[in-house]
Amino acid sequence: MKLLSYALDHNMEPRLAFLCQGQAVDVMRAAFWLKDHHKKTDFIELPSNMRNLLDDWTFNFPLLKELGQVFSTINLYGLTLNSRPIAHALEDVVIFPPIHDPRSFRDFYAFEQHVKTARHHRGLEMVPEWYQFPVFYFSNHNALLGHQWPLRKPKNTTALDYELELGCVIGKGGRDIPAEHAEQHIAGFTILNDWSARDIQREEMKVGLGPAKGKDFGTSLGPFLVTIDEFESVKVGKSYNLTMLARRNGVELSRGNAQDLYYSFGEMIARASEGVELFPGDVIGSGTVGTGCILELQPENAGGWLEVGDTIELEIQGIGTLTNSIVAYDSTENLNHR
Questions:
Q1: In this structure, which CATH number among 3.30.460.10, 3.90.850.10, 3.10.310.10, 3.30.70.2730 belongs to the domain 99-327?
Q2: CA distance 28 to 241
Q3: Residue 87, CB half-sphere, CA atoms under 13 Å: how many?
Q4: What is the pLDDT of residues 259-305, one digit of tens each?
């Protein structure tokens, strides 16, 4: 299933929906419509938001999947509940990050090509420790951006970059999760753009701690959370055969594949959960796919660093396209970011 969090405007609390017939079907309204019109009460316990759905994923997902199957055979046109539409065209709603309020966000560094190339550009060899365990950093889980939300360009950077990543959302928590069982803890996958201010990142990393201010100003997530069962047919070894693309102003810059991951999401989850609890709704990023950023491509080969007015589209096979445009920084302007 393709799940999303949506609202009619940025000032409303996002509601849970699933994609059906190209529209966002509101889960709670769909459940109560079935109760009112077909006396089916099976689905009214489903929650109205993504956080609550994930908090009891094992119970909720089979029920939600059944609800989706029911509505796949129903004509959505004109369906209302208490005069409110049950389904909305995607262009008529604000699409929030699928999980807009995760408890944490860990971003890994798991594609060997990206790590090798980025280090080579700085005159560095690979460190042996990278091959011993997957590494990650904690980013700002309160600075997530949704599909088609603007990104404020940080005022003190001249080297703004995108990063093309595959993200997963935890559906079942746990501690010390074995890698071989870890995928049972994944609710689904989404597209992740780990925006980066390379000049700031470069300076702070010299201190031996970070990244921090080079990345904490925004991470885009979405537009959908696609449940992990949808990817069984493209499972290859310990990853997935998913083409990953990035375009700047309509021109393709990056092309990679999720199957090139050196560390599986199972291994990342195992590492993240060592001695600590993972919670439903936690977000885990793969790190940048090979060729998936300007730092790796080099600015002279990519039209320079990103500027105000640029639009970045990240596309991952089976998930969709995540789009954001860059606007000037203005601390007083309300960009409707929550």
A1: 3.90.850.10
A2: 34
A3: 18
A4: 999 999 999 999 999 999 999 999 999 999 999 999 999 999 999 99
Give yes or no for residue 248 having a pLDDT over 70.
Answer: yes
Residue 336 pLDDT > 60, yes or no?
no
Q: Are 203 and 293 in contact (CB under 8 A)?
A: no
Measure the CA dihedral 118/128/268/115, to 10°. Answer: 10
Query: Position 127: which residue type?
Result: V
Residues composing the chain: 338
Q: What is the DSSP string of 188-229?
A: EEEEEE--EEHHHHHHHHTTT----TTTTT-EEEEEEEEEGG
- Cα 151 from Cα 311, distance rounded (Å): 10
Predicted confidence at residue 9, as pLDDT, reads 93
Q: Show the tokens assigned to 177.
A: 């999760």
Backbone angles phi, psi at 101, to 5 degrees: -135, 55
Residue 328, token pair as written in the block: 């000037």
The sign of the dihedral angle between the CA atoms of 267, 271, 275, 280 is: negative
* CA 97/CA 90 separation, integer angstroms: 14
**Residue 128 and residue 13: Cα distance in Å, rounded?**
46
Read off the pTM.
Answer: 0.96
Residue 108 has pLDDT above 80, yes or no: yes
How far apart CA 267 and CA 100 sit, in angstroms, is 25
Question: Which pLDDT does position 331 carry in this prediction?
Answer: 61
Can you read off the two tokens belonging to residue 316? 């991952």
Where does CATH 3.90.850.10 sit in the chain? Answer: 99-327
Q: What is the pLDDT of residue 12?
A: 94
Strand bridging mode 23-26 / 80-81:
unpaired
pLDDT tens-digit map of 93-102: 999 999 999 9
Separation CA 163–CA 230 (nearest Å): 24
Structural tokens at position 120? 């080579």
